[in-house]
């Protein structure tokens, strides 16, 4: 997982970014049927903790956010939330036991990870049977446009097309529960297979 460039770091910690999360991304998440109440939640790429603040309003059982940028984690911890923030790479979630999480959320972080397929595999590993994943990601074409306009400098190896992401999720054992598209971004909700009933 790579660090944000200085330009993107400033953009992702701006009032505009918080406004979009609060007024657009979270309402869309809810329309897709995602709820946090009573669940053990893991956020990949938690950043400054603003999404954690919104998630905690829904009373999850627990929340863990991971990020590779210590300065982002420092901002998150300053919020004083009833949450745990860890310095960890999404491709190797060493502190998260297998089958211990009910819901993984990924707000536009996979395109920072050259080994993004490894991150998908880790998300699958940590989820319980019947656990869910919610992912927002830009399509490779939209990401190229953002970089040409804003100069954010995303790693080229992580510039995937959404159809490749959806194929990877399916091959990793996720059942699609919902999917939509807007402004060059894909929004996906999926679930792992439920455990077989005992005989």
Your description of this structure?
It is a single chain. The chain has one domain: Vaccinia Virus protein VP39 (Rossmann fold, 3-Layer(aba) Sandwich), CATH 3.40.50.150. It is 36% helix and 26% strand. The chain is built from 7 helices and 7 strands. Strands 3-2-1-4-5-7-6 form a 7-stranded mixed β-sheet, sandwiched between helices. α5 (116-126) links the parallel β4 and β5 (127-138). It is globular and about 45 Å long. The N and C termini lie far apart (43 Å).
Morphology call: globular
Q: Can you summarize the main beta sheet?
A: 7 strands, mixed
Structural class by SSE content: alpha/beta
Q: Between the first and last Cα atoms, what is the distance in angstroms? A: 43 Å
CATH topology: Rossmann fold
- Topology as H/E string? HHEHEHEEHEHHEE
Q: How many β-strand runs? A: 7
Helix content: 25-40%
Give me the Rg, rounded: 16 Å
Low-confidence region ranges: none
Number of domains: 1
On the 0 to 100 scale, the average pLDDT is 91
Strand content: 25-35%
Task: Note the main attributes of this structure.
7 helices, Rossmann fold, 199 residues, alpha/beta, 7-stranded mixed β-sheet
Can you lay out the helices and strands and say which pair or pack?
Elements: H1 6-12, H2 15-31, E1 40-44, H3 50-56, E2 62-67, H4 70-77, E3 84-87, E4 101-107, H5 116-126, E5 127-138, H6 140-150, H7 162-171, E6 174-182, E7 185-192
Parallel strand pairs: 1-2, 1-4, 2-3, 4-5
Antiparallel strand pairs: 5-7, 6-7
